Amino acid sequence: MSDTTDLKRFTTIKALAAYVSHKKRLGKSYDVDAVEAHARFLRVEVESPSTPLEYAFWNRVIDYENVLHEKVGRYVKAQWTRRALKSLSVKDFLTGLMRKGPTFGWRLLEEAGRTDASYESVIVRFSECFDEDVVKTAEALLELKNSVDPE
Questions:
Q1: Phi and psi angles of residue 104, each rounded to the nearest 5 degrees, phi first
Q2: Is residue 19 assigned to a domain?
Q3: Number of domains making up the chain
């Protein structure tokens, strides 16, 4: 069994980081993509998502935090999002966010060309979970971005 197929044995980010550090210290190679995928899995799982909507949402949070990391050069958590979710459900949080208009996070993702990592993309994907006005707002933002910057 290779090291990369056995990454499941690492159940915390700290343990996974120790594995990577050990490999680097010994000058041994490892599958960076597999390690990053497992790290993402662990970062999502620690939030205990219980529905596909929550799972998709936490994946977008991780994407957003990665964009923040690229911008500032260090790991930064989405503090406002995490703080709000202590008192709101994911659905209520996303609904409230869409009713506020474009946020700092949207502008940051748009600037980075990563609107695929936006909370709006989660709303559109799980449109059956949201009120029509919320879905239309998310779709409008995503369509506006696509009309300005077609792929």
A1: -55, -45
A2: no
A3: 1
